[in-house]
Amino acid sequence: MTTVRTEPVRRRGRERSWPVPAALVGLSAIPLTAGALRLVQLAGGPAVFPADHRFTGFPVALVAHIVGAAVFAFVGTFQLVPRIRRRHRAWHRRAGRVVAVAGLVVAGSALWLTLGYEAQPGTGDLLFAFRLVFVSALVASLVLGITAIRRRDVAGHRAWMIRAFAIGLGAGTQVFTEGLGGALFGTGEMRGDLAKVAGWLLNLTVAEWVIRRPARRQQHLVRGR
What we know:
The chain is mostly helical. The protein has one domain (2-224). It is built from nine helices and no strands. It has helices spanning 2-16, 19-42, 60-79, 82-87, 89-116, 125-150, 154-168, 170-185, 189-224. Helix 5 (89-116) packs antiparallel against helix 6 and helix 6 runs parallel beside helix 9. The longest helix is centred in the C-terminal third of the chain and has 36 residues, at 189-224. It starts with a helix and ends with a helix. Keywords: Membrane, Transmembrane, Transmembrane helix.
């Protein structure tokens, strides 16, 4: 009986392993597409967005941020697929190094953009402060994740890298929190800042749920025995 029931469960697990990565790719594609179009515009391409006086030429910080975010998002997404991790462990390790470096590039360029350029029009001191907080949290999560795997603490490594990924994908979620916040509460500097912060907090809330879900499932199985 056990053998008969195991195979359908495995098949269902395989079917369910891909919707989440696909959703994450879609989520990250929104801000990355906008960033890529911005780079094309700065390079002399068609004017898709209103001109931004903060950036002239081809700013290194912006280019590094967009390219780093693209690598971090797309390669990092496949790091989260259990089937790939189990079957391609060598690839997972190599890709993990790429993701870690890309994440640090994202954090460093975000700090550069925050401190070295004027604030984005329509944003205030609240967002400025929280950008520094979440940049620091991204770096800390990456460092703690790397440290954990060097100690062979796989669970700790998984938890910290999921948190880093959640912070890194904040811009994708902010598209929705800003849209929803604007529709419900109107627009304005403070409301816009709070909507952006809500995107990061929502991602971290989901991340903590994902991190703790295996433990809850294991407890349920133990009780069922």
